[in-house]
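Quick check before the chapter quiz. The format below is the same one you will see on the exam, so make sure you can read both the input and the output lines.
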Amino acid sequence: MTYNKTTYNKARCRPSYHRRMAVMPDAVRDNPTLSRFELDANGVTAVANYTIAGNVITFTHTEVPPQARGGGTASQLIAGALQAARARGLKIIPRCSFVSAYLAKHSEFQDLVA
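Here is the expected output.
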């Protein structure tokens, strides 16, 4: 898909389409020391910050460096993080707007919402 002004999502300041990258959710790693999930893409690291209290993980912020934006990196990061939360038996609270938007589009993770 070519980029033009009509495919640009002005509210999110990034393209509204998602190209698939060669990165799979399996590459998402938890960095508990920094309280974040990480995904390497295009030579940079995308992160999803969180806090954990009991059996609830709260996603507070997702950040993708400019070099990796527009290719679905954030979606792959959050998919991997949600899969990890499920595997650990955690419920989630989406305080991050990107995580909230992702959940609205992916009903397969609705059972995780606290």
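If your answer matched, good. Residues 47 and 112 are 20 Å apart (CA to CA).
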